[in-house]
Backbone:
């Protein structure tokens, strides 16, 4: 392992509204190495999205601290790219202009980033769709555009919150293959939240299994299945064993996914 890209230290989060308090995260410790792909699985409401938001700096934890590339996270920063479950493309912007949005927001030079955006559209399999509008794209294509957008400002860390949750099973498998390819080509560090255990096993170097709320890490499972992985790998005993281990951990907590 090279140096740590992301360091989460004893992070806790309590949401307060008047008298009411919700403890979303108990105490989370996690290191993600540079260029590592880490998947986070856990029951609904266990604080996965909260943890991701804390990493982006959009919110501060009520306990503990987070560092990115050795620097404490104290507020929103430009060295992360984020992909959500819904692609949230702006309908009045072309695909290219949607991909360029972070560059516009960060006031980066458009001329330079236009070429980069076009190369990324190529990378995600959308060459030729630069001047189309979002409504002209399928759900899977829109999500690819959202991935290109998250990569455009060349942030080293990619945070993905159930990015393929809204896609049908076949498109989702295709997107898993695509993401593996994009990750290998773009050499990013990825923290990937999913509800799908097979998706986590297919994509990740390590699978982090969380407890029900208040979320804490139950176990971190190493995935030694060699890359590049193919859909045939999902049919091997090794793959099945990893899926089973994650399922048992979640099942042991009385969780139905
Ligand atoms: P997950 O992504 O694992 O499904 P979340 O991180 O979205 O879970 O939520 C964890 C818990 O924190 C839930 O009980 C949720 O209701 C609560 N929560 C999340 N965001 C807020 C907020 N802004 N204010 C109050 N409670 C919140
Ligand atoms: Mg969530």
Residues:
């Amino acid at each position: 392992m090279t140096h740590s890209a992301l360091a989460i230290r004893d992070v806790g989060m309590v949401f307060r509204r008047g008298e009411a308090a919700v403890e979303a995260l108990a105490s989370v410790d996690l290191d993600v190495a540079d260029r590592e792909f880490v998947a986070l699985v856990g029951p609904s409401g266990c604080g996965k999205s909260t943890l991701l938001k804390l990493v982006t700096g959009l919110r501060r934890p009520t306990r503990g601290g987070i560092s990115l590339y050795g620097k404490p996270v104290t507020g929103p920063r430009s060295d992360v790219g984020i992909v959500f479950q819904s692609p949230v493309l702006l309908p009045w912007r072309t695909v290219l202009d949607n991909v360029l949005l972070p560059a516009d927001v960060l006031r980066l030079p458009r001329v330079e980033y236009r070429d980069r955006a076009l190369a990324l559209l190529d990378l995600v399999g959308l060459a030729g769709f630069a001047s189309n509008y979002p409504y002209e794209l399928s759900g899977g294509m829109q999500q690819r555009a959202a991935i290109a957008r998250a990569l455009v400002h060349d942030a080293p860390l990619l945070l993905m919150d159930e990015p393929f949750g809204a896609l049908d099973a076949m498109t989702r498998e295709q997107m898993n293959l695509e993401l593996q390819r994009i990750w290998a080509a773009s050499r990013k560090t990825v923290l990937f939240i999913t509800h799908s255990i097979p998706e986590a096993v297919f994509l990740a170097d390590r699978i982090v299994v969380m407890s029900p709320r208040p979320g804490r890490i139950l176990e971190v499972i190493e995935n030694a299945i060699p890359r590049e992985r193919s859909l045939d790998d999902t049919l091997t005993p090794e793959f099945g064993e990893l899926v089973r281990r994650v399922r048992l951990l979640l099942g042991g907590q009385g969780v139905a996914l």
